[in-house]
Amino acid sequence: MNDVCDADDFEEMLDYSKLSDEEVHGKLIWFWFRFFRLNENFEQYCEARRIGDELTRSRLETQFQRIEDLYKDWGDIHILPEMYGDDLIEWKEWLATKNRLFFTPKIRIISSHTDGAEAGTVMVSIPIGVTRSQLSKLFDELIEKNPEILGTGPKYLPAQINGQRQGEILTRLEKAELVSDLISGEEEFKYSHAEIAELVLKVPSLREFGFKWYPTADQAARIEKGTFQKSEVNDYKRTIVNLDKFFKNTVEGTIHGTFPASL
After folding, report:
1. 8, pLDDT greater than 80
2. DSSP 8-state assignment for residue 127
3. What distance in Å separates the CA atoms of residue 259 and residue 159, rounded to the nearest whole number?
4. What is the mean pLDDT of residues 111-132?
5. How much is the pTM?
């Protein structure tokens, strides 16, 4: 096993239980965008559109049924600024232009008669003092007279996976991305599935990275002595293999407009 990783190389994973449902949903969209940028076929398509390569464009549109539609919605995601670090202003500005694709818009109160309706909205006047049932009836009548208001809702919604909460899905995405980074490293920073499982047991900060794997007292002593055997991580290795597969399937699935992949 490569012994080049320091515990300080890994930051503790964000505690998603402390985020609101809206914040968790927004983080899932962030991951969707991040994984979509790893899809090589869509990257080729963006480049073909950018340089006018009609042959490649036509081939990819024939191969992937939704690719042209995805491009109309997302645009050339490979010319956008990076979405990492503390300053995510550019990412947030881009997302604001795509909100209708990912979020159900909220009703807001117009504070004065001079306020205008936002793009993609209509302004309505709601009488104060009506009951809940009366207000519901008023909205029903409004929709009946103005059916064009209705639509299909957000076009891109993160998939539900085996009844897991969205925060749990985020944790799985974090772990899958970490596994992919360790597998795809170069030279001494490249790890096998078994080596990653062993690494998780050896590096405390990794164990807190959503894995929650802890060595027994005997294993910890042998890890300290350097006599720990790789064969002891076979059960954990299967989890690493599944996370690797989940990562690859999720990246591949983005070009079909789905995220994340099923387990």
Report:
1. no
2. -
3. 6
4. 73
5. 0.81
